[in-house]
Amino acid sequence: MISFYDIFMFPLERMGIKKARKKIIHLAHGNVLEIGAGSGVNLKYYDFSKIEKMTFIDSDFFEVIHEKIKKKNCTIPCETIEMDIEDLKFEDQTFDTIVFSLVFCSVNDVMKGLSEVKRVLKPEGQVLFIEHVLPHKKGFRKLVQKVAPVWFKFSKSCHLDRDFETSMISSGFTIDQIYRTGNTIFTSGIARKK
Known about the structure:
Blueprint: H1 4-24, E1 30-35, E2 51-57, H2 62-71, E3 78-81, E4 95-101, H3 110-120, E5 121-132, H4 138-155, H5 164-170, E6 173-181, E7 186-193
Parallel strand pairs: 1-2, 1-4, 2-3, 4-5
Antiparallel strand pairs: 5-7, 6-7
């Protein structure tokens, strides 16, 4: 099942998001939380043999996610929940792996969202992330800065020019591995609690 969102995202996937998904999503293990699961595009990259339970947060695409899970004949417990990243209704230190892709561009309070991620992550847990950011390359950086205000109005909440890596570090995470793709528009990696 392909959604309009998947069609819209196709050129961006080719710019580097797909490569990032292949590089990091298979590392998820244990009790896994995916925040902003969207249309379930990450599902095909998980190695379900390493996962004990999956929880998906995203209210817009629950039916699509359930359909994709059925097609994968996934035997592990999977649940979808509508929840705000700034107020995660889970106990402290619940998850071994937390995954999010293209989520924090539209979170109102990035630091609050990251503090919640940190709270529900186990001490030795990992965060696997893919985000679009203000590019490092000067030419693209200037272009994104000019386009960002218009894009924000068009998209109704997406900030193209956030410095996500700095936010992660300021929130008490260390970034073990970082990958930049799409002319440094996309950043992905593996983070852990300090």
